[in-house]
Amino acid sequence: MIIExxxxxxxxxxxxxxxxxxxxxxKCSKCDSxxxxxxxxxxxxxxxxxMFKDKSDDQPASEAGRKKKIIVADDxxxxxxxxxxxxxxxxxxxxxxxxGEEALQKVKHELPDLDLLLLDMLMPKMDGFAVVRELxxxxxxxxLPILALSGVFKSEEDRERMKELGVAGYIDKDTPPEDILxxxxxxxxxxxxx
Length: 194
Hints:
- This protein has 194 residues and is an alpha/beta fold.
- The protein has 2 domains: 2-53, no CATH class; 69-192, Rossmann fold (3-Layer(aba) Sandwich), CATH 3.40.50.2300.
- Helices cover 33% and strands 20% of the residues.
- It has helices at residues 45-52, 77-89, 100-110, 128-137, 156-165, 177-188, and strands spanning 2-4, 11-13, 24-27, 34-37, 69-73, 93-97, 116-120, 146-150, 169-172.
- A 5-stranded parallel β-sheet has the order 6-5-7-8-9, sandwiched between helices. The chain has a two-stranded antiparallel sheet with strand order 1-2. It has a two-stranded antiparallel ribbon with strand order 3-4.
- Helix 2 crosses helix 6 and helix 3 (100-110) runs parallel beside helix 4.
- The longest helix is centred in the middle third of the chain and has 13 residues, at 77-89.
- It starts with a strand and ends in a 6-residue tail after the last helix.
């Protein structure tokens, strides 16, 4: 059974045999909130299923039967939240990071179940170039598709540098949101793009 944290919206698989006759409490491994799961009864199975059903049932999913997962790393809150909103509406699971260090930490936590990193190349604490270099060193991170975002690094030399690091593509921050979404879909749903 899949349960969802009401605080951070992270989903977890729980063995139904661990749910007692009076229900159970689980601690969210991401935000430490307590998730209360009511007791399972035969007559309530349908209600319970609708409360805690795996949302991937009605959303586009990957081969493993889960939503495709994206990390949006950007230090500009408006841009970060705008990308999160359009990607979530498209059916993706979105995790956000505010700086390079946080992005690297979240990527390492989510691998190998992470499908894409949307990475601002100019952020505090650690820039996008350093994040990419660090990820490409690791066995799991080297195959992670990364779309570089920038409003500053726009020159042909900058783009070549990103390409040499192994990013899957570059998106100018002035690009309309629907075009950014189209680029994401080209990577995550290549067979569905017309």
